[in-house]
Design brief:
about 110 residues, HIT family, subunit A, 5-stranded antiparallel β-sheet, 5 strands, about 20% helix, binds guanosine-5'-monophosphate
Length: about 110
């Protein structure tokens, strides 16, 4: 599904990208809810956690390795951070492209 995140991946709209590899992209949330608030997404346009297939599980594991890299890079690895994945309407998911919120830099 085409979303604002597809456009960020293709550099059609600007974002502050903090990490990128072949499979994933991490960028600052435009409306940060913590001093550190990074969105980590697969480049593959998976709509939500509910749309993850068995074949995607290595990709999901990869996203968690990216979490650790971004946590170290943004200085929250030791102080601690929260990972949130909103799923579906009542889960508060606004953008239908799977994403992990990495938040930290204050007591949550
Ligand atoms: P959700 O509510 O779907 O879990 O989270 C979507 C997140 O994407 C929100 O925290 C929102 O601030 C962020 N967001 C929405 N549009 C953009 C955008 O164009 N650029 C960036 N960097 N973040 C966005």
């Amino acid at each position: 599904m085409e979303t604002v995140f597809s456009k960020i991946i293709r550099r059609e709209i600007p974002a502050t990208i903090v990490y990128e590899d072949d499979l994933s992209l991490a960028f600052l949330d435009i409306f940060p809810k913590a001093p550190v608030h990074v969105l980590i997404i697969p480049k593959k346009p998976i709509e939500s956690l509910e749309h993850v297939q068995e074949e995607d599980l290595p990709l999901i594991a990869h996203l968690f390795s990216v979490v650790k890299k971004v946590a170290a890079q943004t200085g929250v690895a030791e102080s601690g951070y929260r990972i949130a994945i909103n799923c579906g309407k009542e889960g508060g998911q606004e953008v239908p492209h799977l994403h992990l919120h990495l938040m930290g830099g204050k007591q949550l």
